[in-house]
Each structure stands twice: as structure tokens, then as C-alpha cells.
Fold this protein.
Amino acid sequence: MIIKKRVTEMVLPDKYAYGILFGCSGADGVNEHGQDFCGMLMPEPVTIRFDGETPVTLRIPVGAAAFDFILPDALRCGALTLAFADCRTVVGASALTPDISAPGARTDGFGDARFLSANGFVYALVRREDRFAFCRERTGEEAVRRAMAALAQDLDALIEYRLDYYRRKPPCPRPEYEKLYYKCLAVNRVNVYSPQDGIDCRFTTPDRLPHRHMWLWDSMFHAMAIARYDPALAKEAVWAVLQCQRNDGFIPHLMKSRTDVSRITQPQVIAWALLTIWRLDGDREFLARCAGKTAAYLDWFLTNRDANGNGLPEWDMNFDSGHCRCDESGMDNSPRFDVDEPLDAVDCASFLAHDCRCMAEIWDILGEPEKRDRYAGVADETAKLVNDLLWDDALGAYCDRTLSGRLTGMLTVSSFLPMFAGICPPERAARLVRLLRDERKFATPLPVPSIARDDPLYGADMWRGCVWINYNYMIARGLRRSGYASDADALIETTLSCVNRIFERTGNIFEFYDAEDREIPWRLNRKGEQPDPPDYRKKIHAITDYNWTASFLLLMLSGDQ
């Protein structure tokens, strides 16, 4: 059930920090994907760098200040009120003098207007007494007209409109995490685009900066959380991905537009997302609209990702890309893939079994018993093969198997996915739980590391040791369905506590986290060492305001595991 909205005051995010996104959401209006007017807060308050080939910076010299709130489309402290008036215009009120700049660009001005040219646009800063507007347009005349229209708006009413979005959301189920809860809603909100690029509905992105495009499994994860408070948007997020499907059933992992897409796919989680939305919303028509496309995608996977014909699927791997050999798995640089041949992959098979089981349930809801039985049969057969061929009894865990028949013996978070998929026998679940409780393996200060702690390759570079919240959520689900509810609860509570502490310190929700719970995530490696201070334009760090982390935190806070 959707929780009823409330009208009481909220405890909103108020920490000013580098990395926080500042952009106009497509959740309730129009924004632009290809030439996105989206900014990121820089360290000095208040400095916002708007992305582009040449970054353009708006600075209001607030200095040290206590903020009432900092949201993706509005912020306020005693010396400044600032909000998006539309997707190309920011309007503010302050007695302080704002300024704009860009590397290599000359700033011109006359009267109360300042202009600079960059990225094929004119950026204008227009001031009227204590009000100002900053905008982007094709010509200076158009920019002035846009700025003047923004200055004519009631700024207080605009702020209330921005805040009302959050007032209309369900209350935080865990009051001790209320500020984190609203931060998660804000991250969901800013990472939405309005219909464009051949996609006829709203769609989501993992991060407006630096990546900005649409990804397959990310969008499903976003939809599962968004469905708790906005089922219509959740369904659009799913449908946007399905619109990019080829006639043969293939769905790309990355979509810059409906036609500019990647050649690989991503883990099979669409049926899971559909079933999650159905259980909350009960929209049978939407379920029927998506069922055939989702089934066609699973059929494509069955046909095209089993090179040795043994019934276990493999990921597409790129053996020429150093330590980043498997974008398709979502675990780009995992040491699992530092091998010289393809793998019968435990995560690929577990996701397939789980999604086929969800697909069977969808066909059952839709009254299609023959189709239900077919996908239930695929799920059963895949489960049997996982247990027959991917269990390493000496290791006490599931692991990958080379096509030549050798078990790799590497312990990673994927080793626990058969529990998530519901295909792990009780005696094997007990052995997996022992690994999760073992401080030498996976019981790190912030569990669950992406590879075992005692592995020689364990470190702090993405999937080579860091913690990813999507896997924590799936492992918690697997623990609960295997009868280890207390372990699941402990994992969720530790995750929330650690993530919240870092959020309170940095103002950010990150792509991944330090399993040792020592480093702020932007100091961790991301396919290589990071510069200091962090700057994603020099080297992409653990991404800030990351949408699937926010989504899984919302699911954890809702008690849905």
C-alpha cells in the first residue's frame, strides 16, 4: 500500500558540500538531456559549476553559513535563497553580489547584466536590486528575456512549490533517519529526465553528472523504490527502457537515446521490477503491456548467452580491457573476470533463475498457464545447474566456472546470489552465512565487501573490495528467505548507520563505500587512483548523489527486504 501523505514540517538535508547535484528535475516538468543545464556544488559556499565541454560557474560569496535546506532544485540560508525557475534558469535573492565565470571565456557586461559565451550558448547573469537570475540561451537577447521572466516570478512561492514536492511524499518510516530519507527522495528526483531523445515518457539516470544517460538495471532499481511513492513515474522508468528493445528481444545496457545504444546488456532484473510495481500498484494493464517484452528479453538471453550449451549463461566479456572486462555484469572491474576464458557466471545464472521465477508469476497473474509453466521450468532447471555445477564444496560457496570446467574458487558478493534467488539448499545457506559472519572474509566494519577480505586482490577500487548497497539489499533478502532474519536485520542496520554517518559528514550519497569504514568514498579508487582534492572532471570518483544507492536505502528504510 502507498502510505498517505502528510503536511507537517520535514527535517531536510542541510549540509553544504562538494558533489551535490543542482538541477531541474523532469519528474514534474521539462528538462534537457543532451545539453543538460545541471550543476554540482563546489567546495566554497555557494559555488555551482554547471557542466559542459567548458564548465560555467555561478558564485555567490556566502562563506560559512547555516543552511535551512539544500535540495537539488532549491537551497536557502540566511544570506541567500536560490531555486530553479525552469530547466535553463536559476533565480535567487541575496544582498551579496553573484558572479559568473568560465575557463578561457571573457565576461562582458552592461548595467546589471553580465554575459559569457561557452558551449555554443550565451550565459547571462541579470541583477535587479537584491534579486538575480542566471540562465542559458542561444543569444544574449533571448537570455535577457528568460532572465527577466524569472525575476518577475514570486520567489517565495517558487520555493514553496519546490518544498511541496517533499511534503506530499510519505513520511519517513524511521524518524532517526529522516534527513537521509529526504536526501534519498531528492536524489531520486534530480535524476529524472522528461520525455525526449525518442523516448516518449520520463526516464531515470544513475547520475546526471558525470554520466547522465539511461542504464538497464539501474532504471529497474530506481523504479522499485519510486513505486513506493509515485507508481506512475516508476512505470515510466521501466517502460522507457523497454522502448529501446530490439526486435529480437535484446535490450542494451546503456541508452543515450532510443537509437544511440550499447551492444551489450545487463543483469536480468526487469521481471523483478515489474512484479514489485504490480504488488504496490495492481495495474494489470501495465503488467500485460510489459510482459511480452520482458519475456522476449529473457528468451534473447537464453539464446545468446550460453556459448557451451550447458544451460548456464555467461556474461559478454572484453578480454582486451585490462581489469575492466565485464561491463555487462555490472561488476565492471571485478577480479572475477581476470581470467583468459569466458565463465559460467554464478550471478548471471542466479539473476536468470530469479527473473524467470518472477516472469512465471507474472504470467500466472495474467492467466497464461502455459507461459507460466515454461518460465517456471527454466527457473527450476537453472537452479539445478547452479547447484550441480557452481558449488565449490571445499570453499563452502558458489563461484564461477570456466567453460573448460574449472571452478575459479574466488569468493565475491555474487557467491551469495543463489540465496537471493531462492535456489540455495538450507545446508549450503548455512555455510554461506558462516562466510558472512567471518571477519577474515566478509564481516568487515561495513559489510559486505565485493570480494573476500583475505583475498590478495582485496582493496578499495570499485568491485575489487568496496561495498555496493544494491548487493547488500539483495544479500539481506537472501538471508531472510533462507531463515536468517536476524542476520538480515543486522546487515540492514549496519548499512544504514554507516551510510548515514558518511551522509551527515559529506552531504552525499555515494556509488560505493569503503568496507573498512575509514575513507570518504570520493577518496577511494575508481578504476585507478584519485586526485586530491576530488574532481570528477579530472578523474571520476565514487559518484555522488547516486540514484540506485538512494533507491536501495529507501527500500531498506521502508522495511522492504
Remarks:
- The two ends are 15 Å apart (CA to CA).
- Residues 1-8 have pLDDT under 50 and may be disordered.
- The CA atoms of residues 56 and 102 lie 5 Å apart.
